[in-house]
Model the fold of this input.
Amino acid sequence: MQKPSLVSVLSLLMLGTSEQKSTKQISLVINKKGKIRYKSADGDEQKLRAGALIRNSGSLQLNKDATVLLYSDGRFLIVDEAGGHSLEELLPSGGMKKLNYDARFGQYLMAAVDLVVHADDDDGWGELSGSKGGGDGWGELSGSKGGGDGWGDGELSGSKGGGDGWGDGELSGSKGGGDGWGDGELSGSKGGGDGWGDKDGRIVPILPFGKVPVGPVIFQWSEPRISKDYVLEIFNEAGSIVHSTQVKDNWAQVNMESLPVTVGEKYAWRIDVPSHPESTSTKARIILTDEQANEIIHQKLERSDAYQLDDPVLCGLMEAVVLEEQAHFYEAYERYEMLRQFNKKNNLVKLMQAAFYVRHQLKPRAQLIFR
Done:
């Protein structure tokens, strides 16, 4: 039996919406509790699910003790009163929007929504991949100046000898495929077993990249069928190995605090396959940091009205976005992963995590979420 495509799975999340419908005329269901039904203006009635897109011309019917958190046109709204509710009457129109982090977070929500609204696009990712065919998932959210490798500013992207001490593109892990996989051997899906490339291709480093904390970090990479023996190597900026360990799985936990490394310095890691040297991965870059995630989150979200709603899903998603914007990609990944494990029926969490992966050229990992 053929598995449903990403496009068909995402289309199931749309309740009474049109693919070209203006986002000002729809609401996004952030989270829900209890039994709630949505009735469209045409009279169609369906059970409401977290992550659904609904037209504001419809209405909600809440059972006793049910609660729903909605996002529409830049604003958040909690509905917790039992009975029927017209969305047009509930949702505010016009008025000033506060200049806090809520607006920025809303852009990330809408980027995830584009996975659904433009579900008929060739690759199912819609406007999330930008309007120039780059397919790198940055769109308006990149804030980068051409690096295109998921690092944000120029100093971090430096994969072309940009004067940051890293030299040539070997450290970027990508040499031009447009989808984050580099050469053609990595872009296929004909035998890797995990959707990351063919059996003879090079291993792909997945996580971590960007800033990593001083503490335990789980390194992850693709798993080809050629071998079960891997060597994780971590290099300093001079190219010397500061840590090497052999494992028989496609992940390894390393306590960065126990290594001869320095906070603020740049490092790189790769996976070597002794029995198949041609499959050795490219290098992924990391920077050791002692910046505290909770302090970063507090600084960015202390004035956020949405964060003060204290909804666990909304707060977790906002924290993940803040960490991503500050290049704490690994800790953002941890937030998304924890949210998904504890909210397995919330499709918005899946969409947000998938959008995170696409922005950082990890489409196969994003597609795995919907299998």
Notes: Residues 1-22, 122-195 have pLDDT under 50 and may be disordered. The radius of gyration is 22 Å. The chain has eleven helices and 17 strands. The first strand starts at residue 14 and ends at 15.
